[in-house]
Design a protein that fits this description.
Layout: E1 2-8, H1 14-27, E2 40-45, H2 61-73, E3 77-80, H3 89-95, H4 98-104, E4 108-109, E5 115-119, E6 128-132, H5 133-136, E7 140-144, E8 146-150, E9 154-156, H6 170-177, H7 181-195, E10 199-209, E11 217-227, H8 230-240, H9 249-256, E12 267-271, H10 296-305, E13 308-311, H11 321-325, E14 333-334, E15 345-346, H12 356-360, E16 366-369, H13 372-379
Parallel strand pairs: 1-12, 2-3, 2-7, 3-4, 7-10, 8-10
Antiparallel strand pairs: 1-11, 5-6, 8-9, 10-11, 13-16, 14-15
Helix pairs in contact: 1-2, 2-4, 7-9, 8-9
Length: 380
């Protein structure tokens, strides 16, 4: 039976957050299950980009600071880090408000720049990874995901948070190699099985609904979730936002790989009442993920059934981040005639539907459009 602690926490006031996390860890059996004296523990928050905490893109500094203090009080040696989608880790962490908390406890930024090649013979989809040296420099990882929507995988949570352990531009290579949401999810499951974080503490005090994981809208959820089973944690969040866990590829394949369970009857919910957090109105696409497959016939179907990104021209500031982030070759999104004073255009014949452009747009100007034929089929 997997345990998931649901802890009510209605603000980011530090003392309240710390007491809430301590309560959750206690319900799971105590901090000694997850960190021993003199162990080196790596904290892995979600630092997608360097955005201010109020945007709810990254793990809130209060959550990060509270976990840090709890581990230090347990005698552990703590470091932290992530590999953001754009920019350097330190700069992104500073903008996200994490470095101030880290400096307060004199914890160092771990090495997420140097990659180490590993072969994972238990991988189901991916057996070779390049993983940040920080993972190997520590005895264990504790993951601090953020509750958010996601264009490709529908939901980003405990399982997907470990993708930040892949250094820098190498993440784009996975998007190019694995444009299909199912294949990409299987890779994330393999990555998670290799890293094996001991504990997951999800920041859902404010989550993100809508056009996540960067351009969505903050949504007050008043919850912290803790578990050593990432599948059970993510599945519980899915149920809280009225989403079928089987429609989230990472959850589905995580259970198939033996990493945990999404079955309601196999999850022991601890702490506060599930129904008190239920958010039926949470804005998220609740339909099954439509996979993207390459090939002539598949391309014909993809254009008619798989969602595609598009730019709201009035909201675009021509920053060009979408162009630089596009992993396709040739680019699927580009400046016509290399004129960077214009709104970028799409060539959907080149688009692999990885949604990197939508994920990273700082203005939330890139949205996902459901093709007309799929709308008809979904309505039947």
């Amino acid at each position: 039976m997997s345990k998931v602690a649901l802890i009510r926490c209605e603000s980011y006031e530090y003392d309240i957050v710390k007491r809430s996390i301590e309560r959750g860890i206690s319900l799971l059996g105590g901090v000694s299950l997850f960190a021993q004296k003199d162990e080196n523990i790596l904290l892995k928050p979600n630092i997608l980009v360097g955005d201010a905490p109020k945007k709810c893109v990254t793990t809130n500094p209060a959550v990060f600071k509270a976990v840090t203090e709890i581990l230090i009080n347990a005698g552990a040696n703590v470091t932290y880090g992530d590999s953001p989608a754009i920019g350097k880790t330190l700069k992104a962490a500073k903008k996200a408000g994490l470095t101030r908390a880290a400096d307060e406890f004199n914890i160092k930024l771990a090495d997420f720049k140097t990659g180490i090649d590993v072969f994972f013979d238990k991988g189901l989809q991916n057996r070779k990874f390049t993983i940040a040296k920080a993972v190997f420099d520590n005895d264990a990882v504790i993951s601090l995901p953020k509750l958010k929507t996601h264009g490709l995988e529908k939901f980003t949570g405990a399982i997907k948070n470990q993708f930040g352990c892949v250094p820098g531009v190498l993440k784009g290579e996975f998007h190019l190699k694995l444009p299909d949401a199912d294949d990409f999810a299987k890779m994330l499951v393999d990555l998670n099985k290799f890293i094996r974080p001991r504990l997951y503490i999800m920041d859902g005090i404010y989550g993100m609904e809508g056009n996540g994981p960067r351009g969505g809208t903050p949504k007050k959820m008043n919850i912290l979730l803790l578990s050593s089973d990432p599948v059970a944690l993510d599945a519980t969040v899915c149920r809280l936002i009225n989403l079928n866990p089987e429609y989230v590829p990472t959850t589905k394949y995580g259970m198939q790989a033996g990493m945990g369970t999404y079955l309601k009857e196999d999850i022991d919910l601890l702490g506060d009442d599930f129904d008190s957090f239920f958010a039926e109105d949470f804005k998220i696409d609740r339909k099954p993920v439509k996979s993207f497959k390459s090939g002539f016939f598949s391309d014909f179907l993809n254009h008619r059934f798989v969602s595609k990104p598009y730019i709201e021209t009035e909201e675009c500031v021509q920053c060009g981040i979408c162009v630089s982030m596009c992993p396709a070759n040739p680019k699927a999104v580009f400046f016509k005639d290399n004129d960077k004073s214009t709104v970028p255009l799409y060539n959907y014949d080149n688009c692999i539907r990885c949604f990197c452009c939508q994920e990273i747009c700082p203005e939330s100007a890139i949205r996902l459009k459901t093709p007309f034929l799929r709308k008809i089929i979904n309505s039947i």
